[in-house]
Amino acid sequence: MEESEISKVESKRFQGVPIRYLLPNLLTLLALCSGVTAIRLAVEGRIELAVSAIILAAVLDGLDGRLARFMKGTSRFGAELDSLADFVNFGVAPAIMLYFWSLNSMKTFGWVSCLMLAIACALRLARFNVALDDPNQPAWVKAYFTGIPAPAGALLAMAPFYLGLLWDHTDGHAFAKPIAAFVILIAVLMVSRVPTFSGKNIARVRREYVLPLLAAMALLFVLLVSFPWETLAIFAAVYLALIPLSVLSYYRRKRTTPSD
Q1: Would you say residue 257 has pLDDT above 80?
Q2: What is the CATH number of the domain that holds 120?
Q3: Residue 36: which of 103, 107, 1, 85 has the closest Cα?
Q4: Beta 144-146 vs 195-197: how paired, if at all?
């Protein structure tokens, strides 16, 4: 290698990294810290704070990708870091939380149920990353996820926590069997081919919907602060109820959209 080429490589190595690449990754790392902290809180028996930490991780996960696209700071490194953080936050952490709170009373089967949730999350994230590189995917398909996305799957799997906190249950050992069945159902939906609505590609909002949308978001924030477990339980029920509608919408568009 010539001396001029060596100097170019050295100068590129020590070149600064733009801030637009750092900020989204910082949010991803903060989400990872929140997810790992949720594990510690669950081990210590502070379930309410543990659930709140996972919700915070989900909020940060929703912000980091949008911030990266807004600042044009997307990178392969950021995508890989986001997937690894999502696996911990929405696969490992909820599984451990459910095990210590309820499913440890079922011994091996309870642990297998938790493993299924974590493994389903890993497989779902891997499939999502592969699908991003598919050049033959129609544009309209981007309006749907294949299976339940990892953050939504984690928030759905934690629905027993919401109900338990509403009913002042210190643990879920008495309901371990239905909780295990519910967790397995969520794991299956995560790795399934069931299409679910995606809001990731909504870049613009019609002008007449701006004020109602802002009012709805403000109301949602107030409800989450004032009635967190009731609000989350209702959202979990609504999300599950929307899955059949998303399937109908997907296949209707598939039938009416001409193939290339």
Answers
A1: no
A2: 1.20.120.1760
A3: 85
A4: antiparallel
